[in-house]
Amino acid sequence: MVKTPKDKNILIDGGPDRNIIYKLSPYIPQNKRTIDLMILTHPDIDHLTGLNEVLERYEVKNIIYNGVGDDDPVYKEWQSLKENKKIPFLIIKERERLNIENNLYFDFFWPKEDLTGKDFDNDNFYSLMMKMNFGSNSVLFTGDTEKEVEDILIKDNVNLKSDILKVSHHGSKNATTLDFLEKIKPIYAVISVGKDNSFGHPSFRVINNLERMGITTLRTDEIGDIIFISNGQSIKLLNKEHKI
Length: 244
What we know:
The radius of gyration is 17 Å and the shape is globular. The longest helix is centred in the N-terminal third of the chain and has 13 residues, at 45-57. The protein is an alpha/beta fold. The strands form four sheets. A seven-stranded mixed β-sheet has the order 8-9-10-11-12-13-14. The chain has a five-stranded mixed β-sheet with strand order 1-2-4-6-7, with no helix packed on it. The chain has seven helices and 16 strands. The chain folds into two domains: 1-94, Metallo-beta-lactamase, Chain A; 135-244, 3-Layer(aba) Sandwich (Rossmann fold), CATH 3.40.50. Helix 3 (73-84) links the parallel strand 6 and strand 7. The N and C termini lie close together (11 Å).
């Protein structure tokens, strides 16, 4: 979740269950249950399920997603909630910039084609990848994108330089190459991953790559919620007990 200087709430993905509701409650007052922008990186249920809970309980003003469809009932419920509530939405079809407020904007890097209504065996490849810029600070959100996408962005000479990297696909071995990290040069890498998960995330190779680059790595399975605060010039890491 991102809380902007003008008190807008931006939610990127929702996790695999209703726990997102409890995670949001300390930061969004009961009398302002509003999400100004909901971003779904891709329709895998471990990113989508919690968003349905949010749509049921919060006023969601805008939605951004990649347009990819899915036959899963969770995705169909998300589409139904979005349509019934008549929430304005934007499908990312090309590289573009979205201004949020003064000095804060998103650059969307991937996908760069119209995927509206298409269904894929591997949704990860088409995950949204975008950089949030605030003043001179930036965060790269990677969804579950894989090495092939990283290679395309490197070849296209996309400006990936960011202070914080949200590591792709919970630290999967299929992403976060050394070449990709060289382009980003982050100070911090955040791995959102469940404790003792059955997939073995994060992979040893990814952890080793981050260590070789001297990047401070923070894992939700080890320290829980991870909170940063920025004034547009510098970034401070806060303990999870702090409130923004």
